[in-house]
Amino acid sequence: MKAGPEIGYSADVDFRTFTPTPQPTKPDGTFTDSRDGRIYGYKKIGTQTWMTDNLAWLPIVSPDTTFSLTEKRYYVSGYQGTDTDEAKKSENYQKYGTFYNWPAAMNGEMGKYTLPTGRQGSCPDGWHLPADEEWILLEKNLGMNSSDLKLTGLRTSGNVDKKLKSDTGWEDDDILTGNSGFNMLPAGAISVPDRKSIYLNFAAYFWTSTSESEKNAHDRYLFLFTKGIFRVHVPRSLGHSVRCIKN
Fold first, then answer.
1. Which of 9, 50, 60, 175 is the most buried (most CB within 10 A)?
2. Residue 14 domain-assigned?
């Protein structure tokens, strides 16, 4: 019998597992703010519908060296002028929206709320500035332990911080998991007392409509190097981002 041809194995085969690049979570839909034509995404999480972009409404703009506990202040990260048209052309505005002190976030309203519509504040018609209790419900829907929800300070259960973060933009993009579609952007903040933009790409800070005292209001923040989400009250003069929730 004639022997068959020899079979040779001349090439190495690479069996390494391919990990695809995570794709950004798409919003459920979009709407347009009639005040300035800005388009926002939105996402339903549990029973709530949240904007998936930071609020960008900018009626006036101030240098971040000016501050107030009682008068409205609107800032754009890194912008030091007073021309709103010029400020809106900046990359930080286009990507991260506007920083508001608490009086601006509330648009002059008092720091109390009545569910379900809350205080509209600087949000578009049909939307409102979420109260502390509405953030608590979001955190519960994303898996935070009930015993942690109303604690002050850092809460770490449920990996809520990772679920809130945007798919891209953070310095730790390679370890993001379980994104909820909230798309929390690392815009940073305007700090006190040095009055400057801080923590761009490293942190996110958001106002609630819930007042703690004549000088402080409740907020939420995430920081790159700390696991979990903070529930704290801070000076009303700080410049923070705003996310609106649907009425």
1. 50
2. no
Of 242, 214, 28, 236, the residue nearest 120 (C-alpha): 242
Nearest CA among 87, 106, 91, 97 for reference residue 38? 97
At residue 68, φ and ψ (nearest 5 deg) are -160, 145
CA-closest candidate to residue 71, choices 97, 113, 105, 112: 105
The amino acid sitting at 86 is: E
Domain residues for the domain of 45 are: 29-246
Total number of domains constituting the chain: 1
Q: Which residues neighbour 152 within 8 Å (Cβ) at sequence distance 6 or greater?
A: 231, 232, 233
Residues 6+ apart with CB under 8 A from 12: none
Residue 50's contacts (CB-CB under 8 Å, 6 or more residues apart) are 42, 43, 44, 130, 138, 182, 243, 244, 245, 246
Q: Give yes or no for a contact between 47 and 62, defined as CB atoms under 8 angstroms apart.
A: no
CA distances from 176 to 156, 162, 180, 205, 234 (A): 15, 6, 11, 18, 28
- 164: tokens are 């809130």
Q: Is 177 domain-assigned? A: yes
pLDDT digits (tens, 9 = 90+) for 60-115: 999 888 889 999 999 999 899 999 999 999 999 999 999 999 999 999 876 554 45
User: Which residues touch 138 (CB under 8 Å, ≥6 apart)?
Assistant: 45, 46, 48, 50, 130, 182
Determine contact, residues 126/247, Cβ cutoff 8 Å.
Answer: yes
pLDDT in tens, 188-235: 998 765 556 778 888 999 999 999 999 999 999 998 888 899 999 999
Q: Does 169 reside within a domain? A: yes
DSSP at 194: T
